[in-house]
Write a structure and sequence with these properties.
It comes from Streptomyces cavourensis. This is HAD family phosphatase. GO terms for molecular function: sugar-phosphatase activity. Strands 6-5-2-7-8-9 form a six-stranded parallel β-sheet, sandwiched between helices. The chain has 223 residues and is α/β, with parallel strands linked by helices. 42% of the residues are buried. It has helices spanning 26-39, 46-50, 57-62, 73-85, 98-108, 120-127, 153-162, 176-185, and strands at residues 7-9, 13-16, 23-24, 93-94, 112-115, 138-140, 169-173, 188-192, 206-208, 214-216.
C-alpha cells in the first residue's frame, strides 16, 4: 500500500535503517563508488550502483572485486571510505520528517533502534543530523553482524537488545535489501521512496515518499 496522506502507525518499538531512511546520503555514496570504479578504469552505471544500496559495502564490493585485478575487498572499501569522507564529498542532510518523528517517538518513550549497513563511526556522525545517537537505545552496525542485509541478523539482534518480539516492532527502510531483511526478521515494514521507486519496495507493508506522512497512533485502535 502506498501512502501519500497522513498514515497512522503503532508498535512497541521502532527500528530504523539510517542511510536513505533517516539521513539522505545516497548522493554522496554514489559519488564515492563512482570515483572508486572510474579511478580503476572500470565502467560504472546506475544498474551497478543500485547493487550497493542498503548493503554492507564489503559485501557489495565482493560481487565486483575480480574486475579490479589485484586490490582486496578491504583495500577497495578503505579507498571508497576515503572518497566518502573527503572534503569534496557532497554533504548529507536529514530526510524530511525524520527529526520530528524521532523527537515524537522519543518523547512518547517508544524504544528506538538503528540497524544500518554502515560503520559505527559513520552512523554516529550521521545521527547528529536528526537529533543525535542518544535518542536510540540500540545501534546495530556493520561491525556487529556476520551477514548484512538482506540477511535479518541485524534486525533480530536489535529486537533482542530492545527486548521486543519482532512481530511487535516496525522497521523503516528505503532499499529492497532492507525490506527483505525486515520481512525475514518478522517485522512489519514502512518503506520510503527516497532512493528507489515504489515498485522496488512492493514487499513493504506501507510505502511513503518520506517520513512526513507518518503519525504515531496512541494505541492499536488508532491504526
Amino acid at each position: 500500500m502506498t501512502a501519500t496522506e497522513p498514515h497512522p502507525i503503532q508498535a512497541k518499538a521502532a527500528l530504523f535503517d539510517l542511510d536513505g531512511t533517516l539521513v539522505a546520503t545516497e548522493h554522496r555514496s554514489r559519488a564515492a563508488w563512482t570515483r572508486l570504479f572510474t579511478t580503476h578504469g572500470l565502467p560504472v552505471d546506475d544498474a551497478l550502483l543500485a547493487t550497493f544500496v542498503g548493503r554492507r559495502g564489503q559485501e557489495a564490493l565482493a560481487d565486483h572485486v575480480d574486475r579490479f585485478g589485484g586490490p582486496t575487498v578491504d583495500e577497495l572499501f578503505e579507498e571508497a571510505c576515503g572518497y566518502l569522507m573527503g572534503p569534496d564529498s557532497p554533504p548529507p542532510y536529514a530526510v524530511p520528517g525524520a527529526a520530528d518523528l524521532l523527537a515524537d517517538l522519543h518523547g512518547r518513550g517508544v524504544p528506538l533502534a538503528v540497524v544500518t549497513s554502515g560503520l559505527r563511526a559513520h552512523a554516529t556522525e550521521l545521527l547528529a543530523h536528526v537529533g543525535g545517537a542518544d535518542l536510540f537505545q540500540v545501534i546495530v552496525t556493520a561491525e556487529d553482524v556476520q551477514a548484512g542485509k538482506p540477511d535479518p541478523q541485524g534486525y533480530l539482534a536489535a529486537c533482542r537488545a530492545l527486548g521486543v518480539h519482532p512481530a511487535d516492532g516496525i522497521a523503516f527502510e528505503d532499499a529492497p535489501a532492507g525490506v527483505r531483511a525486515a520481512a525475514a526478521a518478522g517485522l512489519r515494514c514502512v518503506a520510503l521512496t527516497t532512493t528507489h521507486p515504489p515498485a522496488d519496495l512492493a514487499h513493504a507493508d506501507v510505502v511513503v515518499p518520506d517520513l512526513t506522512t507518518l503519525r504515531w497512533a496512541q494505541d492499536a485502535d488508532d491504526r
